[in-house]
């Protein structure tokens, strides 16, 4: 049990004193970047899906 308590205490000290946390503005910029990249990626995948669907429909109807 003492090992667990020691681990938790050491982890707390590590997270509060030795880790450099980003500022709120940096987090906002990173979040916006991830959101924009995700939307662009989703649009590209949707466009590919639409094109493949129409190409396959045309291909199957031609036979």
From TrEMBL:
It is found in: Cell membrane; Membrane. The keyword Repressor does not apply. The chain crosses the membrane at residues 32-52. It is a single-pass membrane protein. Its main location: membrane. Pfam families: SecE. Keywords: Cell membrane, Membrane, Protein transport, Translocation, Transmembrane, Transmembrane helix, Transport. Belongs to the SecE/SEC61-gamma family. Essential subunit of the Sec protein translocation channel SecYEG. Clamps together the 2 halves of SecY. May contact the channel plug during translocation. Component of the Sec protein translocase complex. Heterotrimer consisting of SecY, SecE and SecG subunits. The heterotrimers can form oligomers, although 1 heterotrimer is thought to be able to translocate proteins. Interacts with the ribosome. Interacts with SecDF, and other proteins may be involved. Interacts with SecA. This is Protein translocase subunit SecE. The lineage of its organism: Bacteria, Pseudomonadati, Bacteroidota, Cytophagia, Cytophagales.
